[in-house]
Amino acid sequence: MKKESRTVRYDRELQLEAYCFQGITQPFPNHIHEYYVIGLVEQGERTLLCKNISYTIQRGNLILFNPGDSHSCAQKSQGTFSYRGLNLSKSLMLKLSEDITGRRELPVFTENVLSRTEPACYFRLLHQAIMEHSGEFDREENLYLMLSCLLEEYVQVPSPKICENYPQEIGQVCSFIRQHYREHLCLEQLCQCAGLSKSTLLRAFTKSMGITPYRYLQSVRIEKAKEFLEHGSSLLETAIQTGFSDQSHFTNTFHAFIGLTPGAYRKIFQSPKDSFNE
């Protein structure tokens, strides 16, 4: 049997707590929290009782608890349970909700167990970045994107829709990223550049460009990295010159985008046949 593990991280910049429980069998008695909980089931199956309604939760389910929602859970089978969670204080949720919806009021989620893949995808990216101590603004970006999905579909009052594309503002952000891709950028800088709120910028940028601002930044960095490698720069020098936190981060991102390691890509331009089999 896989040994259980419990890991907790506090992200001081985002001001939220992230935790990961793997291989647990512990039941949890009926209780409440004074904060919001957003969680994702990774493995196993449990019976969840929330506000006297019984659910079977399993891999892929996103769990939402409002402050004060009574809940308990226990194993449904002989296996173990793995779960990732985020705890958001009411003050943090109030700020985020106001940024996203324009209304200064605490949201009340109308459903506790979801099967939607889009917010779950943003949750995974956010949680992974926090657990890996990422210093990039993808953490904040995915937090806003995840909550935008949830607040739009699972809160009693619908969120307003964006009716403008903001082409000039998006162009300014793209230019800013291309000029400053070597630097440690944050979402606030992009918002100041565009003169838009975080929520509006993320939605408008993604609608216009088809990718998020952080993914655009990564794309710019990879394109610049290819130029450095084509001219024979070392992997470490290329990583530094293109704004990556370290060589490992650079290698993993390059491989994810290009399908080759940076070293393999550089060898293409050292080969007389202009090709290389990795």
Relative strand content: 15-25%
Mean pLDDT: 89
List the uncertain runs.
273-278
Number of helices: 10
> Outline, from the CA principal axes?
globular
CA-based gyration radius: 21 Å
Query: Distance between termini?
Result: 37 Å
Q: What is the H/E string?
A: EEEEEEEEEHEHHHHHHHHH
Major sheet: 6 strands, antiparallel
Strand order of the largest sheet: 1-2-9-4-7-10
Q: Label the structural class.
A: alpha+beta
The total beta strand count reads 10
Q: Could you estimate the helical fraction of the residues in percent?
A: 40-55%
Q: Can you give a write-up of this model?
A:
The strands form two sheets. The protein has a six-stranded antiparallel β-sheet with strand order 1-2-9-4-7-10. It is of the alpha+beta class. The radius of gyration is 21 Å and the shape is globular. The chain has helices at residues 90-101, 117-131, 138-153, 167-180, 187-194, 198-209, 213-230, 235-241, 247-258, 262-268; strands at residues 5-11, 16-24, 28-31, 36-43, 45-50, 53-58, 62-65, 71-75, 81-88, 113-114. The longest helix has 18 residues, at 213-230. The model is unreliable at 273-278 (pLDDT under 50). The protein has ten helices and ten strands. Helix 1 packs across helix 3 and helix 8 (235-241) crosses helix 9 (247-258).
